[in-house]
Every structure is written in structure tokens, then in C-alpha cells.
Amino acid sequence: MDSWQKIEIASKAVAALFIPIALAFLGNQVATSNKQRDSEMKFVELATAILRQDPKTEQTSENRNLRLWAVEVINRYSGVPMSNATATALVENTTLPQLSTFEQSTSSTDPSGTWGVVFGGDTTLEAAKFEVTKTAQRMGIGDAAVFRRSGSFRSVKVVVSRAEAEDIVGKAQVVRPSSYVVNMSTWCPTSEAKDGYFECSKP
Predict the structure, then answer these.
(1) pTM over 0.90
(2) Which range, of 7-11, 92-96, 136-140, averages the lowest pLDDT?
(3) Which of 94, 120, 136, 176 could tie 144 with a disulfide, CB 3.0–4.6 Å?
(4) Do residues 75 and 32 lie in contact, with contact meaning Cβ atoms separated by under 8 Å?
(5) Beta partners for 193?
């Protein structure tokens, strides 16, 4: 056995030993990152709830400090920091708008206020049910719903904003590159609940 053969055998042995370790490490890193993101989102939700309360009802130092904390959380985790003027207004005399208010203000461009991420199309309901549970969980988007449209059972994750849909389609395309975003108000304007799926009317 020459030296090159020995080197080849040794390299294969090293690869066989370290590749599973590396994969396990990367998997753990991804899981840790997902947990951290979930935790950050919970903080943002709490901060948003605090800032939706009227600051004028209880103008105490404790209330002001709590609103300052909420602004700091949103600035740190939301990805879109507030200006100093906006932050001051939220702490002193302004509340965050409710989601319903935002939807009403954008109703001219998004009548239904709902968007969907289509990540599968199947000829049978059974196959689609697998997609909206197991495949959706692999994507990290939670359970989805089945919509029957144009004779095909489509796997769809329905959300309330375009921004959320864009975030989800990025996750979905890692597993299913053909995934895409639709406006539910035009893609499936009305639907009827059936046994295990929703039947879309014709646009």
C-alpha cells in the first residue's frame, strides 16, 4: 500500500468521523437560532401590547419606565428602529394603532387584509393534508390549510400581512423552491368549508 492510498483511507476515516458531528452541531445551531427568534418575537408582542395602552390613563413613573422598556424592545428586535421623535411620542402621549385600524387604512390596496403562501398542489386531499401538516412543520411555518382551486388541492399558509407572507415564503422555499405569495382577496375571494378543505369560488 503506497502513501497516497494511506492518505485516502485516513481522509475517509476522518470524514466519516467528523461529518456527523458537524451536521449535529449545525442542526443544534439552527434549533437554537429558531428558539431565540421565537423568544424575541414574544418580547415584541408584549412590548406592542404595552404601547397600545393609552399612556394618559396612568401617568406614573412606573408606567413611563414600562413604556420606555417597550420602545427599547421594539427598536432592538423589530428590525425597523423608531426615530427619537416617534419613541418620545409613544412614551408620552401616543398609542400604537390596532391591527384593524391598519387594515382599514390599507383596504384600498388589500381589501381582505389576508395573504397566502402557496407551497404545494396535489390531486388528492390525502396528499395535501400531509403537506399542510408534516411538510409545513419541516418548513417551520406551523400548520397550514388546504384550498381546492381549479381542480387542485393547494397547500396554503394564510397570514394577515404581505410582510409576514414574504417572511414565510422564504422559509417555505428552502424546502419547496416553487412556493409563492398570493393575495387571498383575488386568488380565492370566497370559499366554502368542506370536509378537510376549503373550496374556492371562481375569481
Answers:
(1) no
(2) 7-11
(3) 136
(4) no
(5) 198
* pLDDT at site 114: 83
Q: Is the pLDDT of residue 131 over 90?
A: yes
Q: Note the pLDDT of residue 147.
A: 94
What distance separates the 2 farthest-apart alpha carbons in the chain? Answer: 85
Other Cβ atoms closer than 10 A to 138:
14
The more confidently predicted of residues 77 and 66 is: 66
For residues 177 and 120, the answer to whether their CB atoms sit within 8 Å is no
- Could you tell me if 165 and 116 are in contact, meaning their C-beta atoms sit under 8 angstroms apart? yes
Q: What percent of the chain has pLDDT over 90?
A: 31
How far does CA 174 lie from the centroid of its chain? 13
Q: What does 27-72 look like in DSSP terms, one character per residue? A: HHHHHHHHHHHHHHHHHHHHHHHHHTS-TTT---HHHHHHHHHHHH
List 148's β-bridge partners, or say none. Answer: 153, 199
From residue 77, how far is each of 12, 60, 87, 108, 148 by CA, in Å? Answer: 44, 26, 15, 30, 37
Query: Nearest Cα to 48, choosing from 29, 30, 69?
Result: 69
Q: Which residues contact 61 (CB under 8 A, 6 or more apart)?
A: none
Contact in structure between 131 and 192 (CB atoms under 8 Å): no
How large is the average pLDDT for residues 174-203? 87
Q: Residue 60 corresponds to which cell in the numbers above?
A: 406614573
